[in-house]
TrEMBL record:
PANTHER family: NAD P H OXIDOREDUCTASE-RELATED, NAD(P)H DEHYDROGENASE [QUINONE] 1 ISOFORM 1
Gene3D superfamilies: 3.40.50.360
GO MF annotations, alphabetized: NAD(P)H dehydrogenase (quinone) activity
A Pfam family: Flavodoxin_2
Domain of life: Bacteria
Domain Flavodoxin-like fold: 1-213
Protein family: Belongs to the NAD(P)H dehydrogenase (quinone) family.
Keyword set, alphabetical order: Oxidoreductase
One Gene Ontology cellular component annotation held by this UniProt entry: cytosol
Protein name: Flavodoxin family protein
Length: 259
């Protein structure tokens, strides 16, 4: 199988660097082909701007979505964007690995998503009508591929527990798991999260890499998070709301997975 690791940490000798190197070796030893997009090493350009569409006409206003649509449809995207899309098409599984920075991904990785997820590639896919609101949330360009987050946090696991002060980790990662990964069609696996990283030492690193290794060994067999598919009948379209008779009275991010 082909695995793409999109990796965002500025320091190769960091904990994230060590875990990424471990993952590459574990996957290659199991016979998989691995490519790494090491965003800091690549000096990835994070901001979206007019240079992302090499056909952008200077006398016209830059429009992030419409320029993206034009560039994707006409082959005028900048080379770095097209190269990352080719890697995504090649991959059977994608791992996004990053330290949690301010309750989200580092800006360089967000900029990878903003630029690589072009209109027509990751969104704006499929028929949009009153009956069908596009191929998204379980359908789309990434359908049939698996994705998983590998995330490190400074906070403790209790800080991210059901009543933890930081909020539950599943809620914090929901915009990435559900929004960035499920939206274009990935089957999203439960994240691998390492908490309280300041307490890492060699013994704990051995335990952590063992646990990560098991998750990588089970990349193809782990049950994905059972997010509800937009076009499978659970949602009212075009409103995009969960049907009233499903989990009546319940709200929040958890309702979007089958409980
Ligand atoms: P490192 O700092 O490289 O390492 C962590 C520890 O692991 C160190 O003690 C190091 O010695 C040890 N280590 C490294 N490699 C090995 C190895 N091979 N074997 C054994 N030990 C090793 N945390 C939150 O919880 N929520 C937030 O919102 C948040 N926001 C942040 C925002 C910013 C801008 C920053 C800088 C930090 C933030 N943090 C937050 C903390 C951040 O998530 C952690 O610092 C990060 O996850 C640690 O990962 P690292 O790869 O940088 O670890």
């Amino acid at each position: 199988m082909n695995v793409l690791i999109v990796y965002a940490h500025p320091e190769p000798t960091s904990l994230n660097g060590a875990l990424k190197d471990f993952s590459v070796k574990r996957l290659e030893d199991a016979g998989h082909t691995v490519r790494v997009s090491d965003l800091y090493a690549m000096k990835w350009k994070a901001p979206v701007d007019a240079s992302d569409n090499t056909d952008h006409q200077p006398e016209t206003a830059f429009h992030a979505s419409l320029d993206s649509k034009h560039a994707y449809a006409n082959g005028t995207q900048s080379d770095d964007i097209a190269a990352e899309q080719e890697k995504l098409k090649w991959a059977d599984a994608v791992i996004l690995q990053f330290p949690l920075w301010w309750f989200s991904m580092p800006a360089i990785l967000k900029g990878w998503v903003d630029r690589v997820y072009a209109y027509g590639f990751a969104y704006g896919v499929g028929e949009h009508s009153d009956e069908r609101w596009g191929d998204r949330y379980g359908e789309g360009s990434m359908a049939g591929k698996r994705a998983m987050l590998v995330v490190t946090t400074g906070g403790w696991d209790t800080h991210y527990g059901p009543r933890g002060i930081n909020g539950p980790i599943d809620d914090i990662l929901f915009p990435i798991n559900h929004g960035v990964l499920f939206y274009p069609g990935f089957d999203v696996l439960p994240p691998f999260v390492v908490h309280r990283t300041s307490k890492m030492d060699e013994a704990r690193f051995a335990q952590t890499s063992d646990a990560l290794g098991r998750r990588l060994d089970e990349l193809w067999s782990t049950r994905p998070i059972p997010y509800r598919r937009q076009n499978a009948g659970d949602y009212v379209i075009p409103e995009g709301t969960l049907r009233e008779d499903i989990l009546p009275g319940r709200t929040g991010t958890a309702v979007h997975a089958v409980m």
